[in-house]
Amino acid sequence: MASRFNFSELGNVYDFSSDNINVFLIVLDSSSSMSDDVDNVRLGLKSYKNEFENFYEADSIAVGVSSFDTSYYPGAFKKVKDLSTDYSTGGATALCYSIVIGAEQLTRYIEDVAKKTGTIPRGTFIFFSDGVPCEDPTSPEDAKAAISRLNYAGITTVFVAFGKAITSEFGKEIGFQATVDVTDRTSLVKFMGEELSKSCKEQSQSMKALGSDFFSHAATESSAGYSNTTAQALDDDDWIDEI
Fold first, then answer.
1. CB of 18 within 8 A of CB of 122?
2. Does the pLDDT of residue 207 top 90, yes or no?
């Protein structure tokens, strides 16, 4: 499927502070079913951002926050300190379509970074959804193919099932390496501010892609109501030399 986006306009490849470059793309479900969670998502993004304030690798990290409902809304990659916490909802759930376009966005940015810096960054694709596909123009098979390409390229793929209308099993079936269930909707701020930020920090400190171990050093069970169910690990040697 051809993309209608010019991702080069969103690249924003800045001067990283080291050659240990990590790129994270967070894709958030912003369909109408998330309307009661707007404040928690905003607070969660703010908490995630704040956790990197004194982190020594922060200037070697680029984070993009995109969202989707009936369409896909790509966000620019930025330093963590410049991360936008804007979020609004409406529309259906073009989940598979957004996996495909999000994977393309991340791949294009990694290519741009590699061309400018001469270093291939480690990439992590983090996808949130609180529901199964609805009014989705793309098939699960296309989504599986997109995730397979990311996995083969050594990019860690993460699926976060939010709420009770979808589970991590969907992410496993699509091929995501790491999956987690955040069943308690009130725990979203804690999850984003603590577990997600901690896992991203650990990825940025690792010499290799964490893959299915993305959440392994974070709390896998908590009273906040989420549990870790990582699956479909890639062999850590399955890196390729270029995207």
1. no
2. no
